[in-house]
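Please, structure for the following, as tokens.
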Amino acid sequence: MAILNVVIADDHPIVLLGVRELIERDERFRVVGEAVCSNALIELLHNQPVDLVITDFNMPADSPYGDGLKLVEYLGRHFAQVKVLVLTMISSPLILTRLHELGVVGVIQKNQLHDDIQLALSSIANGRTFKSAKPEPVSVLEPNVALDERLSRLSPKEFEILRMFVSGQSVTTIARSQSRSAKTISTQKISAMRKLEVSSDQDLLTYCLENNVFQ
């Protein structure tokens, strides 16, 4: 039985330790490296054979490889033979759909990590993609139709820019991480704000935080 080499990428040491312990329970996988940023992840991939990357969706912003969709796109272009399993707290159907379009072998919600990691590893070891068997959480409140409609207007790129902005990154920092001009990023942010029907940065932050858009 071939053993698959795994690299884990997450900027939280406790998460790295927890994921490593869960993986080491499965004799079909071997952890060969850990990374706390995108730079370290790419360096590991260049220096040794890796079959599977398990990476957090949100990573430190000061990397030319970025995080989120940008990082997954980069991995797909430059390390096409490496499978990618994403850990995230984001439940946006827009982003989850885009991740699967980019070819990830699975997405695990961090609050379901202990329940889903072994199922995901078994699927990957058998050459299949993983989809959580757990149902989507159902709110006890009425669905926020207006919120869903507004979010559906956003492109994946606009959603990604808002995610980084709401996390505290400046337009200049986002532009650097996305290899785009600040003017381009600002234009995309303004377009997204119009679609969400908010008129100021403070209104944007309040809207996203109150509606748990990036949770």
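The CA atoms of residues 42 and 78 lie 10 Å apart. Confidence is low (pLDDT under 50) at residues 134-143.
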